[in-house]
Amino acid sequence: MDVAALIAWLVTAVGGFVLLGTWISKGGARAPRTSNFPPALIFGHFALAAAGLVVWIIYLVAETSGLAWTAFILLIPTALLGFVMLARWIPTYRSRTVTAGPGTTASPEPAEKHFPVPVVVGHGLFAVTTLVLVLIATLD
């Protein structure tokens, strides 16, 4: 179960890197006023997830239950921040793009408007799977 949790966590991380890269490349970090995701939300989610993954890898080597619980506890706020981002992303995804006519100025699209839907869904599903597998492995 421990290794399955690691694999799920790594797949989740790959999806997260794709989303983070998209957000940064589309100007999310340069023009945070146009994004529904404040940089602190994005980078806080990333930092907590990365810290938890590092702790989980150390747990796999050391096999200390305290490390497993620490990794699980780090996953809880990570998941909460993920749900906040999902709640902010859904209206952005559903909104229609309005093109500006001659003489008008359109507001720029938020960076998260460019997220690939399959990556968002996969990232979320693997994140939930990771959380469950880490909990099961920690309780063993």
Description:
- With 140 residues, this protein is an all-alpha fold.
- The chain has one domain.
- Helix content is 72%, strand content 0%.
- The longest helix has 30 residues, at 65-94.
Which structural class do the helices and strands define? mainly alpha
Residues in helices, as a percent range: over 70%
What value does the average pLDDT take? 91
The end-to-end span amounts to 9 Å
Question: N-to-C SSE series?
Answer: HHHH
What's the count of strands?
0
- Integer-rounded radius of gyration: 17 Å
Which runs of at least 5 residues are low in confidence (pLDDT < 50)?
none
Short description:
The protein is mostly helical and 140 residues long. The chain contains 4 helices and no strands.
List key phrases describing it.
140 residues; mainly alpha; 72% helix
List the helices and strands and how they pair.
Layout: H1 2-25, H2 39-62, H3 65-94, H4 117-139
